[in-house]
Design a protein that fits this description.
Elements lengths: L1 H7 L3 H40 E16 L5 E6 L6 E2 L4 E5 L2 H50 L5 H48 L1 E3 L4 E4 L8 E2 L6 E16 L11 E6 L6 E9 L25 E8 L12 E7 L2
Antiparallel strand pairs: 1-8, 1-12, 2-4, 2-7, 3-6, 4-5, 6-8, 8-11, 9-10, 9-12, 10-11
Helix pairs in contact: 3-4
Length: 330
């Protein structure tokens, strides 16, 4: 009976081994599941690697419009705020217009004087024309009278001289009239230029977008060519991806692209390859590499590829955001 009892009841050592065996099977099961999941994931990635070319060396780009004054002046008002959304034509900066208003008024007065000179020259032409017609008629009569020996040759010569002088005076009046009209055109151009400069005292945004890099304050004196604000265009964004030259074998314009933006994890945007740069990024640097030197080391170059969105993004994307692009090449 004792032997039967010992055979049917487990010893404490056996009872301790049983939980350990159960844990081992759990570990093996978990490892197996992980191995299967990893194999599936790896297989998908491997299969995808044959169809897609990927790079994370990519950023969203957009048009950047500089706001630059065209005339010098003192800033009296800045209506633009950092990151403000603006529409083309909105007022951003106002310069002191006093000097340009005075120049406009001077130009307007000069134009009025020139127009008055035209009127005077026109009156001179009318008077000279009337005198010329009278003296020409007198000359014809004098010739008839001289043929009839009614007047002397001296009197005829005097009539001829008067007619000739009146013709010269009429021609001079015509020249003066043309010169006066030319002065009017000149003064009109000067007035237009003065009005244009006055309009430039109000600086507007060249395109719709958002205010960026504002570098102007009231009281500041600005000069032409000085960048005061940058407007980042919001209507047209694209991606520039710098692919390794070894990734371009099967890439061509028109291929579909999956765009992932770091700022919006899990969100994918659709695009397509628009163009591939004719030169590498290094070729356009300030100091491009000189491969003719004796210490040449071969480095894989990167080629910029422009990618455009085929669907308007439904997220607030901004120029400069980092992205990951996958181009379907097969």
């Amino acid at each position: 009976m004792a032997d039967t009892k010992n055979h049917n009841h487990e010893t404490p050592a056996t009872q301790a081994k049983k939980p350990e065996n159960d844990k081992s099977w759990i570990r093996i099961a978990i490892f197996g599941v992980l191995l299967i999941v990893g194999s599936i994931w790896g297989g998908i990635k491997l299969y995808r690697s044959f169809q897609y070319v990927e790079t994370d060396n990519a950023q969203i780009e957009g048009d950047v419009y500089p706001v630059i004054p065209r005339v010098p002046g003192k800033v009296i008002e800045v209506t633009a705020e950092d990151n403000q959304a603006v529409t083309k034509g909105d007022t951003l900066i106002k310069l002191d217009p006093s000097d340009y208003q005075i120049k406009r008024d001077i130009a307007a007065a000069a134009l009025m004087n020139a127009q008055a000179a035209v009127s005077g020259a026109k009156a001179e032409i009318s008077a000279a024309s009337a005198t010329q017609q009278k003296l020409a008629a007198d000359l014809r009569r004098s010739r008839n009278l001289q043929h009839q020996d009614v007047i002397s040759q001296a009197e005829l010569d005097a009539a001829q001289a008067g007619a000739t002088a009146s013709s010269a005076k009429h021609a001079a009046a015509g020249d003066q009239y043309e010169a006066a009209k030319a002065q009017v055109k000149l003064r009109e151009a000067e007035l237009k230029n003065a009005e244009l400069q006055l309009s430039w005292a109000t600086i507007t945004t060249p395109a719709s977008g958002h205010v960026s890099r504002k570098n102007v304050q009231p009281g500041q004196y600005v000069t032409p060519g000085q960048q005061l604000i940058a407007i980042v265009g919001s209507n047209d964004l694209w991606v520039v991806a710098n692919f390794k030259e070894t990734q371009l074998e099967n890439m061509k314009p028109g291929q579909p692209v999956v765009i992932s933006v770091d700022a919006f994890p899990g969100k994918e945007f659709k695009g397509k390859v628009q163009s591939i740069s004719a030169g590498t990024g290094a070729k356009f640097t300030l100091l491009p590499p000189d491969n003719a030197s004796g210490n040449f080391v071969k480095v894989t170059q990167r080629v910029p590829v422009k990618i455009v969105f085929t669907e308007k993004p439904d997220k607030p994307l901004s120029a400069g955001m980092n992205v990951i692009v996958e181009v379907k090449v097969k």
